[in-house]
Amino acid sequence: MDLRDDLTPFEAVNYFFHKAADIDKLSDAAIAVLTGTYRELRVQVPVRRDDGSLSVHIGYRVQHNGARGPYKGGVRFHPSADLEEVRALASLMTWKTALVGVPFGGAKGGVQVDPTGFSQTELERLSRRYFGQIAHIIGPNRDIPAPDMNTNAQVMSWFMDEYGRRRGHTTQIVTGKPLALGGSEGREAATGRGVVQVMDRAVEVRELGVPRDLTLAIQGFGNVGSWAARLADEKGYRIVAVSDMYGAVHHPDGLDVPALVAHVNESGSVTDFAGSEPMDPAALLTADVDVLVPAAVGEVITHHNADDVRASIIVEAANNPVTPVADAALTERDVLIVPDILANAGGVTVSYYEWVQNNQELYWDETEVNGRLERKLEKAFDDTWKFYTETGEAASMREAAFALAVNRVVEAASLRGYL
Protein backbone atom coordinates (compact mmCIF):
# COMPACT_ATOMS: atom_id res chain seq x y z
CA MET A 1 0.00 0.00 0.00
CA ASP A 2 1.33 3.43 -0.96
CA LEU A 3 2.10 5.99 1.72
CA ARG A 4 -0.33 8.87 1.20
CA ASP A 5 -1.62 11.84 3.14
CA ASP A 6 -5.26 10.91 2.60
CA LEU A 7 -5.41 7.37 3.99
CA THR A 8 -8.63 6.60 5.85
CA PRO A 9 -8.28 5.30 9.44
CA PHE A 10 -8.71 1.67 8.33
CA GLU A 11 -6.30 2.15 5.43
CA ALA A 12 -3.78 3.64 7.87
CA VAL A 13 -3.96 0.58 10.12
CA ASN A 14 -3.66 -1.71 7.10
CA TYR A 15 -0.65 0.27 5.89
CA PHE A 16 1.21 -0.88 9.01
CA PHE A 17 -0.26 -4.36 8.67
CA HIS A 18 1.27 -4.61 5.19
CA LYS A 19 4.63 -3.57 6.64
CA ALA A 20 4.29 -6.44 9.11
CA ALA A 21 3.15 -8.82 6.37
CA ASP A 22 6.38 -8.12 4.49
CA ILE A 23 8.45 -8.78 7.61
CA ASP A 24 6.51 -11.95 8.44
CA LYS A 25 6.48 -13.06 4.78
CA LEU A 26 2.75 -13.74 4.82
CA SER A 27 0.95 -15.58 2.06
CA ASP A 28 -1.49 -13.77 -0.22
CA ALA A 29 -4.31 -15.73 1.43
CA ALA A 30 -3.35 -14.55 4.91
CA ILE A 31 -3.10 -10.96 3.71
CA ALA A 32 -6.52 -11.17 2.08
CA VAL A 33 -8.13 -12.47 5.27
CA LEU A 34 -6.45 -10.10 7.72
CA THR A 35 -6.90 -6.88 5.75
CA GLY A 36 -10.66 -7.41 5.89
CA THR A 37 -13.13 -7.94 8.71
CA TYR A 38 -15.02 -11.08 9.68
CA ARG A 39 -18.38 -9.42 10.36
CA GLU A 40 -19.79 -5.90 10.13
CA LEU A 41 -23.20 -5.06 11.59
CA ARG A 42 -24.94 -1.75 10.89
CA VAL A 43 -28.01 -0.98 12.96
CA GLN A 44 -30.54 1.80 13.32
CA VAL A 45 -30.76 3.24 16.84
CA PRO A 46 -33.92 5.31 17.37
CA VAL A 47 -34.07 7.12 20.72
CA ARG A 48 -37.15 8.70 22.29
CA ARG A 49 -36.04 12.04 23.73
CA ASP A 50 -37.40 13.52 26.93
CA ASP A 51 -39.44 16.09 24.99
CA GLY A 52 -41.23 13.33 23.08
CA SER A 53 -39.30 13.70 19.84
CA LEU A 54 -37.45 10.84 18.19
CA SER A 55 -33.80 11.04 17.16
CA VAL A 56 -32.41 8.33 14.90
CA HIS A 57 -28.75 7.32 14.91
CA ILE A 58 -26.60 4.74 13.16
CA GLY A 59 -24.65 2.19 15.16
CA TYR A 60 -22.02 -0.41 14.27
CA ARG A 61 -20.35 -3.49 15.66
CA VAL A 62 -17.36 -4.74 13.69
CA GLN A 63 -15.68 -8.06 14.46
CA HIS A 64 -12.27 -8.09 12.82
CA ASN A 65 -10.67 -11.42 13.76
CA GLY A 66 -11.35 -14.05 16.40
CA ALA A 67 -8.58 -16.58 15.78
CA ARG A 68 -7.09 -16.12 19.25
CA GLY A 69 -10.30 -15.94 21.28
CA PRO A 70 -13.62 -14.13 21.72
CA TYR A 71 -13.93 -10.75 20.04
CA LYS A 72 -13.10 -7.88 22.40
CA GLY A 73 -13.47 -4.17 21.99
CA GLY A 74 -15.02 -1.01 23.32
CA VAL A 75 -18.11 0.90 22.30
CA ARG A 76 -17.91 4.64 21.66
CA PHE A 77 -20.65 7.24 21.31
CA HIS A 78 -19.20 9.94 19.08
CA PRO A 79 -20.09 11.80 15.86
CA SER A 80 -16.97 10.41 14.14
CA ALA A 81 -17.82 6.78 14.92
CA ASP A 82 -18.55 5.84 11.30
CA LEU A 83 -17.91 2.43 9.77
CA GLU A 84 -14.41 3.29 8.60
CA GLU A 85 -13.29 4.39 12.06
CA VAL A 86 -14.89 1.39 13.77
CA ARG A 87 -13.20 -0.97 11.30
CA ALA A 88 -9.83 0.60 12.08
CA LEU A 89 -10.32 0.32 15.83
CA ALA A 90 -11.49 -3.31 15.57
CA SER A 91 -8.35 -4.15 13.61
CA LEU A 92 -6.13 -2.36 16.12
CA MET A 93 -7.73 -4.42 18.89
CA THR A 94 -6.82 -7.66 17.09
CA TRP A 95 -3.16 -6.64 17.03
CA LYS A 96 -3.23 -5.16 20.54
CA THR A 97 -4.53 -8.27 22.25
CA ALA A 98 -2.06 -10.44 20.32
CA LEU A 99 0.88 -8.21 21.21
CA VAL A 100 0.23 -8.20 24.95
CA GLY A 101 -0.74 -11.88 24.99
CA VAL A 102 -4.36 -11.87 26.13
CA PRO A 103 -6.60 -14.52 24.50
CA PHE A 104 -9.02 -12.26 22.66
CA GLY A 105 -9.69 -11.21 19.09
CA GLY A 106 -10.51 -7.72 17.91
CA ALA A 107 -13.85 -5.92 17.71
CA LYS A 108 -15.23 -2.42 18.11
CA GLY A 109 -18.59 -0.74 18.37
CA GLY A 110 -19.90 2.75 17.96
CA VAL A 111 -22.92 4.95 17.58
CA GLN A 112 -22.67 8.12 15.50
CA VAL A 113 -24.04 10.53 18.05
CA ASP A 114 -22.97 13.49 20.15
CA PRO A 115 -24.20 12.44 23.60
CA THR A 116 -23.23 15.66 25.40
CA GLY A 117 -26.78 17.01 25.25
CA PHE A 118 -28.42 13.78 26.38
CA SER A 119 -30.04 13.45 29.78
CA GLN A 120 -29.24 10.38 31.86
CA THR A 121 -32.54 8.75 30.88
CA GLU A 122 -31.91 9.50 27.19
CA LEU A 123 -28.43 8.02 27.46
CA GLU A 124 -29.90 4.90 29.03
CA ARG A 125 -32.43 4.56 26.20
CA LEU A 126 -29.64 5.00 23.65
CA SER A 127 -27.45 2.41 25.35
CA ARG A 128 -30.14 -0.20 25.77
CA ARG A 129 -31.47 0.23 22.23
CA TYR A 130 -28.03 -0.03 20.66
CA PHE A 131 -27.11 -3.10 22.70
CA GLY A 132 -30.43 -4.73 21.93
CA GLN A 133 -29.76 -4.25 18.22
CA ILE A 134 -26.38 -6.03 18.36
CA ALA A 135 -27.13 -8.56 21.13
CA HIS A 136 -27.48 -11.52 18.76
CA ILE A 137 -23.75 -11.40 17.94
CA ILE A 138 -22.62 -10.69 21.53
CA GLY A 139 -21.83 -13.29 24.18
CA PRO A 140 -19.38 -13.98 27.04
CA ASN A 141 -17.44 -16.38 24.83
CA ARG A 142 -18.27 -14.67 21.54
CA ASP A 143 -17.88 -10.88 21.80
CA ILE A 144 -17.34 -8.86 24.98
CA PRO A 145 -17.88 -5.06 24.82
CA ALA A 146 -16.16 -2.52 27.06
CA PRO A 147 -16.20 1.27 27.61
CA ASP A 148 -14.61 3.68 25.17
CA MET A 149 -15.04 7.32 24.24
CA ASN A 150 -18.19 8.79 25.92
CA THR A 151 -19.16 5.45 27.46
CA ASN A 152 -18.39 4.32 30.99
CA ALA A 153 -19.14 1.85 33.77
CA GLN A 154 -22.78 2.96 33.91
CA VAL A 155 -23.27 2.25 30.21
CA MET A 156 -21.71 -1.19 30.71
CA SER A 157 -24.18 -1.79 33.55
CA TRP A 158 -27.09 -1.11 31.19
CA PHE A 159 -25.52 -3.40 28.58
CA MET A 160 -25.13 -6.18 31.15
CA ASP A 161 -28.70 -5.76 32.36
CA GLU A 162 -30.06 -5.77 28.81
CA TYR A 163 -28.22 -9.02 28.08
CA GLY A 164 -29.42 -10.47 31.38
CA ARG A 165 -33.04 -9.87 30.40
CA ARG A 166 -32.50 -12.18 27.45
CA ARG A 167 -30.06 -14.79 28.75
CA GLY A 168 -29.97 -14.52 32.53
CA HIS A 169 -27.45 -12.86 34.82
CA THR A 170 -24.08 -12.86 33.04
CA THR A 171 -21.43 -10.62 34.60
CA GLN A 172 -18.76 -11.59 32.05
CA ILE A 173 -20.76 -10.25 29.08
CA VAL A 174 -19.03 -6.84 29.39
CA THR A 175 -15.97 -5.46 31.13
CA GLY A 176 -15.35 -2.06 32.65
CA LYS A 177 -18.32 -2.53 35.01
CA PRO A 178 -18.73 -0.96 38.46
CA LEU A 179 -17.24 -2.96 41.32
CA ALA A 180 -20.75 -3.59 42.66
CA LEU A 181 -21.61 -5.52 39.48
CA GLY A 182 -18.42 -7.56 39.15
CA GLY A 183 -15.97 -4.99 37.92
CA SER A 184 -12.26 -5.32 38.62
CA GLU A 185 -10.16 -3.34 41.03
CA GLY A 186 -7.78 -1.14 39.06
CA ARG A 187 -9.82 -1.08 35.85
CA GLU A 188 -10.59 2.66 35.86
CA ALA A 189 -6.92 3.62 35.99
CA ALA A 190 -5.64 0.69 33.91
CA THR A 191 -5.12 2.39 30.55
CA GLY A 192 -3.43 5.42 32.07
CA ARG A 193 -1.35 3.17 34.32
CA GLY A 194 -0.21 1.16 31.31
CA VAL A 195 0.74 4.35 29.48
CA VAL A 196 3.02 5.37 32.35
CA GLN A 197 4.51 1.89 32.67
CA VAL A 198 5.58 1.73 29.03
CA MET A 199 6.68 5.38 29.17
CA ASP A 200 9.03 4.46 32.02
CA ARG A 201 10.54 1.69 29.91
CA ALA A 202 10.87 3.98 26.87
CA VAL A 203 12.66 6.62 28.97
CA GLU A 204 14.93 3.90 30.34
CA VAL A 205 15.93 2.39 26.99
CA ARG A 206 16.50 5.86 25.51
CA GLU A 207 18.55 6.81 28.59
CA LEU A 208 16.83 10.19 28.97
CA GLY A 209 17.40 10.39 32.70
CA VAL A 210 15.28 10.20 35.84
CA PRO A 211 11.62 11.34 35.85
CA ARG A 212 12.21 14.48 37.93
CA ASP A 213 14.45 15.83 35.16
CA LEU A 214 11.94 15.18 32.36
CA THR A 215 9.08 17.28 31.04
CA LEU A 216 5.80 15.86 29.83
CA ALA A 217 2.84 17.21 27.80
CA ILE A 218 -0.50 15.39 27.69
CA GLN A 219 -3.09 16.07 25.01
CA GLY A 220 -6.48 15.04 26.39
CA PHE A 221 -7.56 14.98 30.03
CA GLY A 222 -10.32 12.40 30.03
CA ASN A 223 -10.02 9.08 31.83
CA VAL A 224 -6.77 8.03 30.16
CA GLY A 225 -5.01 11.39 30.13
CA SER A 226 -5.96 12.35 33.67
CA TRP A 227 -4.85 9.02 35.13
CA ALA A 228 -1.62 9.16 33.15
CA ALA A 229 -1.01 12.64 34.55
CA ARG A 230 -1.71 11.56 38.13
CA LEU A 231 0.47 8.47 37.97
CA ALA A 232 3.31 10.22 36.11
CA ASP A 233 3.21 13.04 38.65
CA GLU A 234 3.50 10.51 41.48
CA LYS A 235 6.63 9.13 39.81
CA GLY A 236 8.16 12.60 39.64
CA TYR A 237 7.66 13.58 36.00
CA ARG A 238 7.12 17.30 35.45
CA ILE A 239 3.80 17.70 33.61
CA VAL A 240 4.14 21.13 32.03
CA ALA A 241 1.15 21.20 29.66
CA VAL A 242 -2.26 19.53 29.38
CA SER A 243 -5.29 20.07 27.17
CA ASP A 244 -8.88 19.00 26.73
CA MET A 245 -11.64 19.77 24.23
CA TYR A 246 -12.07 23.26 25.69
CA GLY A 247 -8.49 24.49 25.75
CA ALA A 248 -4.99 24.00 27.15
CA VAL A 249 -2.87 25.24 30.05
CA HIS A 250 0.82 25.11 30.83
CA HIS A 251 3.42 26.00 33.43
CA PRO A 252 7.17 25.66 32.72
CA ASP A 253 7.92 24.50 36.26
CA GLY A 254 5.20 21.86 36.21
CA LEU A 255 1.49 21.89 36.94
CA ASP A 256 0.07 20.96 40.33
CA VAL A 257 -1.64 17.80 39.08
CA PRO A 258 -3.75 16.93 42.16
CA ALA A 259 -5.07 20.50 42.23
CA LEU A 260 -5.68 20.36 38.48
CA VAL A 261 -7.69 17.13 38.82
CA ALA A 262 -9.78 18.74 41.56
CA HIS A 263 -10.29 21.80 39.35
CA VAL A 264 -11.46 19.64 36.44
CA ASN A 265 -13.81 17.69 38.68
CA GLU A 266 -15.37 20.95 39.80
CA SER A 267 -15.36 22.98 36.59
CA GLY A 268 -15.38 20.32 33.86
CA SER A 269 -12.29 21.63 32.07
CA VAL A 270 -8.57 22.28 32.48
CA THR A 271 -9.09 25.89 31.39
CA ASP A 272 -8.84 28.74 33.92
CA PHE A 273 -6.74 26.64 36.26
CA ALA A 274 -5.15 28.89 38.90
CA GLY A 275 -1.39 29.09 38.66
CA SER A 276 -1.26 28.19 34.96
CA GLU A 277 -1.17 30.07 31.69
CA PRO A 278 -3.48 29.37 28.73
CA MET A 279 -1.95 28.04 25.55
CA ASP A 280 -3.05 27.13 22.05
CA PRO A 281 -4.08 23.43 22.18
CA ALA A 282 -2.38 22.84 18.83
CA ALA A 283 0.87 24.24 20.25
CA LEU A 284 0.89 21.56 22.95
CA LEU A 285 1.72 18.93 20.31
CA THR A 286 4.85 20.82 19.32
CA ALA A 287 5.87 21.96 22.79
CA ASP A 288 9.52 21.70 23.84
CA VAL A 289 9.14 18.65 26.08
CA ASP A 290 10.90 15.34 26.50
CA VAL A 291 7.78 13.16 26.25
CA LEU A 292 4.51 13.82 24.41
CA VAL A 293 1.39 11.79 25.26
CA PRO A 294 -1.47 12.21 22.78
CA ALA A 295 -4.43 10.85 24.79
CA ALA A 296 -7.45 12.26 22.98
CA VAL A 297 -8.47 11.41 19.42
CA GLY A 298 -6.84 10.02 16.31
CA GLU A 299 -4.83 11.75 13.59
CA VAL A 300 -3.60 14.74 15.59
CA ILE A 301 0.02 14.47 14.43
CA THR A 302 0.07 14.69 10.65
CA HIS A 303 2.30 15.82 7.82
CA HIS A 304 1.28 19.38 8.73
CA ASN A 305 2.89 19.43 12.19
CA ALA A 306 5.22 16.41 12.36
CA ASP A 307 8.31 18.45 11.50
CA ASP A 308 7.55 20.77 14.42
CA VAL A 309 7.26 18.05 17.07
CA ARG A 310 10.13 18.46 19.53
CA ALA A 311 9.54 15.58 21.93
CA SER A 312 12.10 12.77 21.96
CA ILE A 313 9.46 10.17 22.80
CA ILE A 314 5.79 9.95 21.83
CA VAL A 315 3.60 7.55 23.81
CA GLU A 316 0.35 6.89 21.95
CA ALA A 317 -2.28 6.79 24.67
CA ALA A 318 -4.97 7.43 22.04
CA ASN A 319 -5.69 5.16 19.10
CA ASN A 320 -4.06 6.14 15.81
CA PRO A 321 -2.93 9.65 16.87
CA VAL A 322 0.02 9.69 14.42
CA THR A 323 -0.73 9.30 10.72
CA PRO A 324 1.49 7.05 8.60
CA VAL A 325 3.10 10.02 6.82
CA ALA A 326 3.88 11.69 10.14
CA ASP A 327 5.12 8.38 11.54
CA ALA A 328 7.61 8.06 8.69
CA ALA A 329 8.85 11.63 9.17
CA LEU A 330 9.26 11.23 12.93
CA THR A 331 10.97 7.85 12.58
CA GLU A 332 13.41 9.43 10.13
CA ARG A 333 14.27 11.96 12.86
CA ASP A 334 14.78 9.14 15.40
CA VAL A 335 11.78 10.11 17.52
CA LEU A 336 10.80 7.01 19.48
CA ILE A 337 7.08 6.31 19.09
CA VAL A 338 5.60 3.78 21.50
CA PRO A 339 2.67 2.60 19.34
CA ASP A 340 -0.94 2.56 20.45
CA ILE A 341 -1.24 -1.22 20.32
CA LEU A 342 1.33 -1.32 23.12
CA ALA A 343 0.98 2.03 24.88
CA ASN A 344 -2.75 1.92 25.59
CA ALA A 345 -3.09 -1.85 26.06
CA GLY A 346 -3.48 -1.56 29.82
CA GLY A 347 -7.24 -1.20 29.49
CA VAL A 348 -7.84 -4.39 27.53
CA THR A 349 -5.37 -6.26 29.72
CA VAL A 350 -7.29 -5.46 32.90
CA SER A 351 -10.53 -6.07 31.01
CA TYR A 352 -9.20 -9.57 30.43
CA TYR A 353 -8.47 -9.89 34.15
CA GLU A 354 -12.02 -8.74 34.88
CA TRP A 355 -13.43 -11.37 32.50
CA VAL A 356 -11.28 -14.07 34.15
CA GLN A 357 -12.45 -13.02 37.62
CA ASN A 358 -16.10 -13.01 36.48
CA ASN A 359 -15.76 -16.50 35.04
CA GLN A 360 -14.24 -17.78 38.27
CA GLU A 361 -16.35 -15.63 40.62
CA LEU A 362 -13.06 -15.13 42.45
CA TYR A 363 -11.76 -11.58 42.78
CA TRP A 364 -8.31 -10.06 43.25
CA ASP A 365 -7.31 -6.93 45.13
CA GLU A 366 -5.88 -3.90 43.35
CA THR A 367 -2.28 -4.77 44.23
CA GLU A 368 -2.68 -8.14 42.52
CA VAL A 369 -4.29 -6.60 39.43
CA ASN A 370 -1.68 -3.87 39.10
CA GLY A 371 1.16 -6.34 39.55
CA ARG A 372 -0.19 -8.62 36.85
CA LEU A 373 -0.65 -5.61 34.54
CA GLU A 374 2.90 -4.39 35.10
CA ARG A 375 4.39 -7.80 34.36
CA LYS A 376 2.29 -8.24 31.23
CA LEU A 377 3.13 -4.84 29.74
CA GLU A 378 6.80 -5.02 30.67
CA LYS A 379 7.10 -8.29 28.78
CA ALA A 380 5.24 -6.88 25.77
CA PHE A 381 7.52 -3.82 25.72
CA ASP A 382 10.67 -5.88 26.08
CA ASP A 383 9.61 -8.34 23.36
CA THR A 384 8.89 -5.45 21.01
CA TRP A 385 12.10 -3.58 21.83
CA LYS A 386 14.17 -6.74 21.38
CA PHE A 387 12.63 -7.44 17.98
CA TYR A 388 13.14 -3.81 16.93
CA THR A 389 16.74 -3.50 18.06
CA GLU A 390 18.11 -7.00 17.48
CA THR A 391 16.53 -8.42 14.34
CA GLY A 392 17.10 -5.44 12.06
CA GLU A 393 13.83 -6.27 10.29
CA ALA A 394 11.68 -3.41 11.64
CA ALA A 395 12.31 0.28 11.04
CA SER A 396 10.45 1.34 14.19
CA MET A 397 8.85 0.06 17.35
CA ARG A 398 5.51 0.24 15.57
CA GLU A 399 6.66 -2.07 12.78
CA ALA A 400 8.13 -4.44 15.37
CA ALA A 401 4.91 -4.45 17.41
CA PHE A 402 2.76 -5.14 14.35
CA ALA A 403 5.11 -7.87 13.12
CA LEU A 404 4.96 -9.71 16.46
CA ALA A 405 1.20 -9.34 16.74
CA VAL A 406 0.43 -10.35 13.16
CA ASN A 407 2.64 -13.42 13.43
CA ARG A 408 0.76 -14.57 16.54
CA VAL A 409 -2.64 -14.13 14.89
CA VAL A 410 -1.50 -15.96 11.75
CA GLU A 411 -0.16 -18.82 13.85
CA ALA A 412 -3.51 -19.20 15.64
CA ALA A 413 -5.50 -18.93 12.42
CA SER A 414 -3.27 -21.52 10.72
CA LEU A 415 -3.63 -23.97 13.59
CA ARG A 416 -7.40 -23.60 13.35
CA GLY A 417 -7.15 -24.52 9.69
CA TYR A 418 -8.53 -21.50 7.89
CA LEU A 419 -5.28 -20.08 6.59
How would you sum up this structure, described in words?
The chain has 419 residues and is an alpha/beta fold. Among the domains are: 40-173, Rossmann fold, CATH 3.40.50.10860; 189-343, NAD(P)-binding Rossmann-like Domain (Rossmann fold). The chain has helices at 9-24, 28-34, 83-100, 120-134, 153-167, 187-205, 223-235, 257-267, 281-284, 324-332, 340-343, 346-360, 366-391, 397-416; strands at 39-48, 54-65, 71-77, 105-111, 143-147, 215-219, 238-244, 247-250, 277-279, 291-294, 313-315, 336-338. Helix 3 crosses helix 14 and helix 6 packs parallel to helix 13.
Top keywords for this entry?
single chain, 419 residues, alpha/beta, Rossmann fold, seven-stranded mixed sheet, five-stranded mixed sheet, 14 helices, 17% strand, globular
Quick structural summary:
The chain is an alpha/beta fold.
Architecture blueprint of SSEs:
Elements: H1 9-24, H2 28-34, E1 39-48, E2 54-65, E3 71-77, H3 83-100, E4 105-111, H4 120-134, E5 143-147, H5 153-167, H6 187-205, E6 215-219, H7 223-235, E7 238-244, E8 247-250, H8 257-267, E9 277-279, H9 281-284, E10 291-294, E11 313-315, H10 324-332, E12 336-338, H11 340-343, H12 346-360, H13 366-391, H14 397-416
Parallel strand pairs: 3-4, 3-5, 6-7, 6-10, 10-11, 11-12
Antiparallel strand pairs: 1-2, 2-4, 7-8, 8-9
Helix pairs in contact: 1-3, 1-14, 3-14, 4-5, 6-7, 6-12, 6-13, 12-13, 13-14
